[in-house]
Amino acid sequence: MDFGWSAAQRELSERMRALGAEADAAPADQRMTVLARGGALGLAISPDHGGGGFDLVTTAFAYEALGAGLRDAGVLLAAGAHLFGVALTLARLGSPAQQTTWLPRLATGEIVATIAATEADAGSDIAAVEARAHRIDHGFRLTGEKRYVTWADRAGLFLTLARDHAGERGLTTLLVPPGPGVVVGALLPTSGLRTARLAPVRFACEVAPEALLGREGAGLPVFQVAMTFERALILAFRLGALDRALHDAVRFARDRRPGGTPLARHDAVAHRLARMKQRLETSRLLVYRAAWELDQGHRAHAEAALAKWHLAESALASALDAMTLRGGAGYLDEAGHPGDIDDALGATIHSGTSDVLATIVARWLGI
């Protein structure tokens, strides 16, 4: 694994940083459109399907730059679910016809895709889903309700998971476009990540045989592939956010001079900043290692879990440090730090909670 970046990778990073800044300056409702227009939604999709054709390490580097320029974690979460959760899964497991139908539209952002998997009684235990996929003559009849679906009211494609009609053949993964029988509920009033547009989605629809992703009854392995891509890469943008927060904190600690002495001269403050730097660099190593493993064609199930687990908890810890460093002023909404904490807290839940990811790592160790 090369720890350096080529000129082409650095050029892409600078372009994505500028794109992130452009999106940051745009109204919240237009930020996804800005990302799509700049090619961010198709970076890792093959050029044959209109994408950028970049490997996953390079794509992670690009998303780190996006996160440095764009402070909207909700939109970046939705963009990651689209590219890493759905598009890469389609590129890996979809049929040629499915790839031809969907990937060009996903690459350009003509449609934004999302995963609809969690249910009232099936979150961490995804095998407990109760949604049903009934085989009919002309495809499947899908029934059930999903919760906490990202970008739900604007999605152009849902990757969803359902049990077969008799329940004995396991789970089936389907690609479902919005239409009759797909009902999106009201947006959920989440504490953070509000621009991710989480909402419940109720399915009572029929889909064609071509909606089947993978084999009927073998949907759980398909979903695990989607989760591996997502866990490895969906928080790559937070590397840029951590870097930005660290630079802001260092500047604050140098400039703030109570009693004439810079805050940075106090060991307690300096150590807090050092821990923020440590979390950033260890998170980078884990994310790029997971991306590299996937680029090599490895399963990378545990590496992805480690990357997401560590980065999510690092982001939360550093958000708390950034607020604490500023005292009472940091606790004001106008400072932005309470919102950063709420956003970071959400990252410890979506795409697998810390406990779920710890279990994956423990099983990798043979425990």
From TrEMBL:
Keyword match rRNA-binding: no
Pfam families per the UniProt record, alphabetical: Acyl-CoA_dh_1, Acyl-CoA_dh_M, Acyl-CoA_dh_N
Annotated GO biological process: fatty acid beta-oxidation using acyl-CoA dehydrogenase
Iron-sulfur as UniProt keyword: no
Domain Acyl-CoA dehydrogenase/oxidase C-terminal as annotated: residue spans: 217-365
Source domain of life: Bacteria
InterPro entries (alphabetical): Acyl-CoA_dehydrogenase (IPR050741), Acyl-CoA_Oxase/DH_mid-dom (IPR006091), Acyl-CoA_Oxase/DH_mid-dom_sf (IPR046373), AcylCo_DH-like_C (IPR036250), AcylCo_DH/oxidase_C (IPR009075), AcylCoA_DH/ox_N (IPR013786), AcylCoA_DH/ox_N_sf (IPR037069), AcylCoA_DH/oxidase_NM_dom_sf (IPR009100)
Domain Acyl-CoA dehydrogenase/oxidase N-terminal: 8-110
Family named by the database record: Belongs to the acyl-CoA dehydrogenase family.
Protein name stated in the entry: Butyryl-CoA dehydrogenase
Lineage per the UniProt record: Bacteria, Pseudomonadati, Myxococcota, Polyangia, Polyangiales
